[in-house]
Amino acid sequence: MDEAKNFDDVLNNIVEIPIPPGIPQSIIVRVIETCGVNYEVKKYELFDKEYPVLYGEKENIENAKSYLILFTEAKLALRDIARLARRFKTKVKVYTDDEDLKLAIGMISNDITNKDKIEILDEKLDSEDFETIDICGKTVYIFV
Question: Is the whole model's pTM more than 0.90, yes or no?
Answer without folding.
Answer: no
